[in-house]
Design goal:
Layout (H helix, E strand, L loop, with lengths): L2 H5 L6 E5 H17 L3 E2 L9 H10 L4 E3 L2 H10 L5 E7 L3 H11 L3 E6 L2 H11 L6 E7 L11 H12 L4 E8 L6 H17 L7 E4 L15 E3 L8 H5 L10 E12 L2 E4 L3 H4 L10 E3 L5 E6 L4 E5 L10 E6 L2 H5 L4 E5 L5 E5 L8
Parallel strand pairs: 1-16, 2-9, 3-4, 4-5, 5-6, 6-7, 7-8, 8-9
Antiparallel strand pairs: 1-10, 10-11, 10-15, 11-14, 12-15, 13-14, 16-17
Helix pairs in contact: 2-3, 5-6, 7-8
The structure holds pyridoxal-5'-phosphate (PLP).
């Protein structure tokens, strides 16, 4: 049966996730990690779905990564199998610290800090708790987002965290830029040695990122890896040569609503479905089976498709689009359509969408 007749009853724009492809992606990286003695801690920001977290845990993940407390709470509520959560974000502010304490009473929890200002807030919130909060020092290995700037600073912060009431030093964490595996090894190995020279144990060295995941073992100091987008893949990863179209589990289905010129058509998926993320690419997505088409312009509800030849689409016809950035698409929709191996479709709420605090 063609995909048009299988999915034609679902109103568009709609997001579909092929579970067989997602499972294959999960198992591929888990096999690599197992072969290299790496623990896998997937970042759930890509799917925000309890079902997929469950698949990742069943495949062998040791826990999950979340960016925000509300995201973690939504996932733990939806998937009781999640018992171990790492929040890779500086938690700042009384309301958030109070919610972090509540979450820490439910699951094995760790967070990061890259300054004593952040660690001091954590310490004040956890000082009276029976269990210490594990805090990893975030290190900047070249992405220039958060993170201490040098191994010496990492060791100094580790020492102060270990001495803070309510806190336990949990290890070292980094989110490197693409292709920086060698820099990860150099920075993290030096930081680990300096921390150990302080008499502390470094239980975890955590790194992440899908583009470099199949070379993660080239930084042997790493003990755990946090891939996120690997579960769905997207146009940006195909462009980097990390995945093929067949490895893309998430597609946005759209309907042609206008064909105003021979080489131009308009679909009902605009920036509210595809997002305006370019990630350095030209165009807003790939129309499967139509290499000649570019999605060159979006407004909120319109996507403009242009072709180098007569576009050959008619009003009412459907197209499937691989978005540039799957994670942000998940955050835009209330529900996704999960396609299981038998072709059955199940609508599922994206429980952690919009959880930005
Ligand atoms: C801290 C952290 N770890 C892991 C990831 C996962 O990266 P990717 O989606 O490239 O696998 C991200 C992505 O934003 C992140 O911010």
């Amino acid at each position: 049966m063609s995909w048009e007749s299988r999915f034609g009853g679902v109103p568009t724009p709609a997001v579909f996730v092929d579970l067989a492809v997602a499972r294959r992606n999960i198992e591929r990286f888990q096999a690599y990690a197992n072969a290299h003695g790496l623990a896998v801690r997937p970042h759930i920001k890509t799917h925000k779905l309890p079902e997929i977290a469950r698949m990742q845990l069943d495949a062998g993940a040791i826990g999950v990564t979340c960016q925000k407390i509300s995201e973690a709470v939504a996932m733990v509520d939806g998937c009781p199998a999640i018992r171990d959560v790492f929040i890779t974000y500086n938690i700042v502010g009384e309301d958030k610290l109070a919610r972090l304490v509540t979450l820490a009473r439910r699951v094995r929890l760790a967070v990061v800090a890259d300054s004593m200002a952040v660690a001091a807030g954590l310490s004040a919130a956890f000082a009276a708790e029976p269990e210490k909060l594990r805090v990893l020092v975030e290190c900047n290995t070249g992405a220039d987002r958060c993170g201490v700037a040098s191994p010496a600073e990492a060791a100094a912060l580790a020492r102060r965290i270990a001495a803070s009431p309510g806190l336990a030093f949990g290890g070292l964490m980094t989110y490197p830029p693409v292709g920086a595996t060698a820099a990860v090894e150099t920075f993290m190995r030096a930081a680990k040695a300096l921390v150990e020279a302080e008499g502390l144990v470094v239980p975890v060295v955590s790194s992440g990122g899908t583009p470099s995941m199949m070379s993660a073992a080239e930084a042997p100091v790493t003990t755990e890896y946090r891939p996120g987008t690997y579960v769905y893949n997207d146009r940006s990863l195909v462009a980097r040569g990390v995945a093929s179209w067949d490895d893309c589990a998430l597609t946005v289905h759209a309907t042609v609503v206008s064909v105003p010129a021979e080489n131009r058509a308009i679909v009902d998926a605009g920036s509210k479905a595809l997002t305006s993320d370019l990630l350095g690419l030209t165009g807003y997505g790939h129309v499967l089976g139509r290499d000649d088409i570019a999605i060159d312009q979006l407004s909120e509800e319109h996507g403009r498709l242009v072709s180098t030849r007569p576009i050959g689409l008619s009003v009412g016809e459907r197209v499937r689009i691989i978005p540039n950035h799957a994670c942000v698409v998940s955050n835009m929709v209330d529900e996704v359509h999960l396609i299981d191996v038998n072709g059955t479709i199940a609508r599922r709420p994206v429980v952690a969408r919009g959880c930005i605090a």
